[in-house]
# Entry
Amino acid sequence: MDCLFCKIIAGEIPSAKVYEDDTVFAFRDIEPQAPVHVLIVPKEHIASANEINESNSAVVAHIFEVAAKIAKDEGLTDGYRIVNNCGDSAGQTVKHLHFHLMGGRNFTWPAG
Ligand code: AMP
Ligand code: ZN
# Structure
């Protein structure tokens, strides 16, 4: 499949890996928007949050467990932001479900 994140998970494209287990992979964003900016993705190819359903949603819960662990490991004791862009108008550029874990600075709300 011609999917950038599937290739990163398979090791065909290099990445700065932060975490990996049987179902989840996490790596540093190549264009960080915060001092800590990690992308957390399911190993299974799910195109977007809009394709989460009864049969694949367990990995999403696991991603949030992993996010808390990474945040702790990265020293984000003051808080952090988790973002998912779903679809074109939200700015999703890679069509493989991913959650941005960002921290190390203050964030404004609502996000632009
Ligand atoms: P989104 O715009 O929500 O789809 O997020 C895609 C993210 O992937 C962006 O923040 C990009 O900077 C990031 N990205 C694109 N290519 C790579 C890559 N090869 N390694 C790490 N991050 C990447
Ligand atoms: Zn993929």
Q: What stands out?
A: The radius of gyration is 14 Å.
